[in-house]
Amino acid sequence: MDLGLNGKIAVIMGGTSGVGLKTAEMFLQEGAKVAICGRNEERKDKAYDHLMKYGEASSIYAATCDVTNKLDVTSFIENTASSFGGIDILVNAAGQSVMGYFFDVTDEQWEQQIQLKYFAIIYAIRAVHPYLVKQGGGRIININATLAKEPERHMVATAATRAGLLNLSKTLSQELAPDNILVNSVSLGLIRTDQWERRRMKNAPDMNPEDYYADLAKKRNIPIGRVGEAEEVASVILFLASKQSSYVSGSTIETAGALGKAL
Ligand SMILES: NC(=O)c1ccc[n+]([C@@H]2O[C@H](COP(=O)([O-])OP(=O)(O)OC[C@H]3O[C@@H](n4cnc5c(N)ncnc54)[C@H](OP(=O)(O)O)[C@@H]3O)[C@@H](O)[C@H]2O)c1
């Protein structure tokens, strides 16, 4: 199926690993140009080398950028637009969670989550908006978590800020609709990415990876019986960026193997 992504320009905030990197890879396979960023230079260079297997150097832009730093975000987006001649799609995939119950989470951790889940998104959307308008419209896809609707006490700061981002995405879908900019969310359950690989290496380095993830799915009661793969999330992101989803805005697609119970 032609997704209509050939020649489109996609910016992926946090595209140097996990879901963001897989999404970049799949955009390239569809003939799009991609810009990715992350804080860690080595990870960024590795991601760039990986993406070179799927596209030409002229279709890939990779830079270090802390999404919670307004100046970093603005210059990354401006550099992308000037390298590629515009921007059509923004995917907000940068992130990490904070574990902790209410009385354990420090003010610094709350602030970090608020910066990452609100301000990073605000900065990126403000910066891409004029470019999307110039193209006559575009797509914004915010990666979220089932936690947004179903808080878990041991991840209080992440859950609370995720809920706020879901609310913000809905408002923006209405605010930006006259500009023909569609805003949607993808709500993740448990997806096997580098984030989880790091946890596996820390907590169970000697365990067979397949057994580790099977065990995790069982412990978390994932109805579909397994954790998700980054590609299964990237496919949903590509759909939301595609011409096929031209009347979808303000929605949340749960990509969680039926984990979420909230309506
Ligand atoms: N995997 C899951 O089970 C799951 C579940 C629910 C939600 N999510 C969400 O899905 C998104 C992708 O997660 P993932 O599992 O793919 O994680 P991942 O493999 O750890 O990738 C996260 C990416 O975000 C970047 N990043 C993190 N903080 C950043 C910052 N301040 N500035 C710039 N880049 C930053 C990382 O690069 P650097 O570290 O180099 O900056 C990396 O490229 C995240 O928002 C995550 O919270 C994931």
Binned, the helix content reads 40-55%
Strand order across the largest sheet: 3-2-1-4-5-6-9
- Rounded Rg: 18 Å
CATH class: Alpha Beta
Q: Give the CATH architecture.
A: 3-Layer(aba) Sandwich
Total DSSP helices: 8
H/E order of the elements? EHEHEHEHEHEEHHEHE
- What average pLDDT do the residues reach? 97
Unreliable parts: none
Please count the beta strands (DSSP E, at least 2 residues each).
9
Query: How many strands, which pairing sense, and closed or not: the largest β-sheet?
Result: 7 strands, parallel
Task: Provide the structure class.
Answer: alpha/beta
Beta-strand percentage range = 15-25%
Number of self-contained structural domains: 1
Going by CATH, the homologous superfamily would be NAD(P)-binding Rossmann-like Domain
**Envelope shape:** globular
Label this structure with key terms.
single chain, 263 residues, alpha/beta, Rossmann fold, 7-stranded parallel sheet, 9 strands, globular, binds NADP nicotinamide-adenine-dinucleotide phosphate
Summarize the structure.
With 263 residues, the chain is of the alpha/beta class. 45% of the residues lie in helices and 17% in strands.
Task: Walk me through the structure.
The strands form two sheets. A seven-stranded parallel sheet has the order 3-2-1-4-5-6-9, with helices on both faces. The longest helix is centred in the middle third of the chain and has 28 residues, at 107-134. It contains eight helices and nine strands. It is globular. The protein starts with 8 loop residues before the first strand and ends in an 8-residue tail after the last strand. It has one domain (9-190, 227-255): Rossmann fold (3-Layer(aba) Sandwich), CATH 3.40.50.720. With 263 residues, it is α/β, with parallel strands linked by helices. It has helices spanning 18-29, 41-51, 70-84, 107-134, 156-175, 194-203, 209-219, 230-241, and strands at 9-13, 33-38, 60-64, 89-92, 138-145, 181-188, 191-192, 228-229, 252-255.
